[in-house]
């Protein structure tokens, strides 16, 4: 067995020796086959002696070699596919390509043309260019290139870009765009300073009996224009004055948009707080979420107690009661003494007992919390808050009916509520059981919110033959209170025109209905008589008309003849002397203050639009529209036309004429009782 094993080992050893010898032989053969490659340089044709000078420039082969070397360097990068200009490649003095000019591209040139608007500064100066080249690791211009740029701007092959600093946009220039509002080149603010602008905003009368002028002021406050001049420290005060006036005009849709444009900061957080409270009072899921989004954002930077309380209320609305109670505990521990808030919070979480509210310290946030727990809102509270909150309070369910009727009446008086909303609330609060005569008598004796709702319901639910008589009398009573257009708008739809109506009232009813349809641009009645055609033509204020003076005498509007000339409308008659001798004194009207008249004339001379608007608003202070004299309306109209606002001037005159027509037509019928 051992012998067999030894034999195997011996055979294996022999095999390894043979393999080694075979590999060595192969290696030897490969080594013998390797050839040595030697570069052979042909000798010069002319062998020069060592002691003679060599002129290499005369050698053709050397010159050929140098030419090939030169060509190989310049063709190292070929840009023929992107540019046909040799200037597209910039070389330094060593003839090494360093960077590629991209400014010759057509698209780039177009972009630079767009930017070349005298407000763009490509490079502030050469130092900026050097700084850019030293800090940019991808593009390193050489010193020679920079010198070339200094000497010749065309080295870029780019259009020349004018250099000017960008002006800083002032916060006070923010606004909404109303292209159709202002005539071209009419500046509101830029010709006065902040101090004067604030003074004028403080004195604008927002309690106007003119829908047209109110709309003009609203747009004036929201249009985006260059701000006033002067101390920038007054800028925030100026903005707050504008927003406050817009709120008093009940322009909340625009107000909310402007609030969204305001920068973050405590200077304007009071307006964000107003918006949050209005959202809460609307009582809708979407508005609650919007309010809480604002609260979450502002409470991060504003530590005022309102935002802490609003955040707690949001936590309650969103179902995070534990978090709300924890934060309320911290707020109370910090020394906050708003007992109304903590008592209402306990009621919301059903952890408190009965309590008495402090009416003197109630706020809109408290009202929103009270509405959540179905608590009746005290009537006295309505008289203590700013009137610009009235429109949003209509959404609160738990306000007493008489308080809501009062709110609706105030909104009607301020022209801040739609006809559909008025009808909705009158339908709820009006007494349907009253007969028309009883409702009319209440309106005569106590012309107020409830009697107005009652007469509307009584007329709406009545089908008497002579209903037109009652409607005309109701409009007449309201006209004496300065509500001619409002009453016409609410009651004229109930006129009944048929053969059963007495002609004594039918003609006047048709006129009032026609005036209402003209005012609201509704389809007109057919078969108009001469009287009605006169009203239609006059209220159109179309230029080039020739109207007979007889109708002006009939409606006691002779005083408007000079006013009509502003619209190129002529009035003609025959015997003016006889007309003078037989004239009847017209109704008394409010004459304008001489100081306001002089101030308005000066504002026109100086082209001060804001000054003129302020004066116009003061001309209507404490005066109903139909009481204004034709001279006052003439002055206001002339100023509007002077500022390029012809359409607004027509709207104002039309509004004033309608209020006078309604008063004139119905006033003589006040003694309808036969």
Question: Can you characterise this structure?
Answer:
55% of the residues lie in helices and 2% in strands. It has a domain of 71 residues. It is extended and about 155 Å long. β1 and β2 form a beta hairpin. By secondary structure, the protein is an all-alpha fold. A two-stranded antiparallel ribbon has the order 1-2. The protein contains 32 helices and 4 strands.
Number of strands: 4
Which strands sit side by side, in order, in the main sheet? 1-2
Cα end-to-end separation: 157 Å
Helical residue percent? 55-70%
- Give the overall average pLDDT: 80
In one word, what is the shape?
Answer: extended
User: Main sheet, how many strands, which sense, barrel?
Assistant: 2 strands, antiparallel
What ranges have pLDDT less than 50 throughout 5 or more consecutive residues? 26-53, 74-104, 116-159, 163-167
Report the portion of residues in β strands.
Answer: under 5%
Count of alpha/pi helices: 32
Structural class: mainly alpha
- Rg over CA atoms, rounded to whole Å, is 45 Å
